[in-house]
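Hey team,

Filing this mostly as a record. A colleague (T.K.) asked me to run one chain through the structure pipeline before their review meeting, and I want the input and output archived in the tracker in case anyone asks later how it was produced. No errors, nothing strange. Just documentation.

Input sequence:
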Amino acid sequence: MSTVTETSGSAPGVGAGSTDAPPPPEQSAETALARTLQKIARGDVLVVVMSFVFAFLIGSVLIVIADQEVRETLGYFFARPTDALTAIWQSVTQAYGAMFRGAIFDGPGFSRVAEDVREAGGSGTYVLLPALAAGLRPLTETLTVGTPLIIAAAGMAVSFRAGLFNIGGTGQLIVGAMAAGYVGFSVDLPVVLHLVACLLAGVLAGGLWGGIAGFLKARFGANEVISTIMLNWIATYLLFFALKTAAFTGANQSQPTSPSVGRTRCCRSCWAAASGSMPACSSPPAPQCCCGG
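Output structure:
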């Protein structure tokens, strides 16, 4: 004889028959914190922070080793350890302070220009703007030099994520520099249009040069590592050849330098501003090649 057990009309997993209870608030907070810490530990933020930390530590060690005064104080470290520690601190802080002034912000230059303008009778923004321009000049120079490297690294990272090894960043930079430089000193355009034209020329030339390796890979199955390395050397010697032609040297063929861009076309400050404010579309070599000399 079978018995039928009556159950409530609630849906499965819902109702009085369920014994699962929500965790207490303290445990939920701990779990959320643990998940957050795991995300940070596994994410890119920690990698970037630790890269800076290790670079700072390794750089400090090299600075200490290279400082003769520090080495001398380490010779009698156990007799007077404070001398060695003071010398190490001064050596490291002075070195990194000089790096900061040369790459980010020039505090003494800011103060010097501000004092000069005040002595000349300036006040308010007439003092602040020239002083800021002098103080931030190292940052604009850093952006001018660093943006080509950042863009080249981004291009190589894209190819790596696609499963290809792009070792031809150097050659692509050189060819892009040649194209941007040629447009810079040979074409006469208004400043803004001239800047954009140089950037586009560098982007197109560098992309086409990298496309050669892509074509060889897709059409003939050529190894992209070998082809990009060979294209680096081809680009290098192509630049050497170009600097011996009248198209790149003009009338001054005795020196392997291209003509500089006139100030009526563009100026170095324009390139610095463009390389810092338009990193996504700037051609890697344009700032260095078009405004030289």
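Quick notes for T.K.: The chain has two domains: 43-134, 140-290. The radius of gyration is 30 Å.
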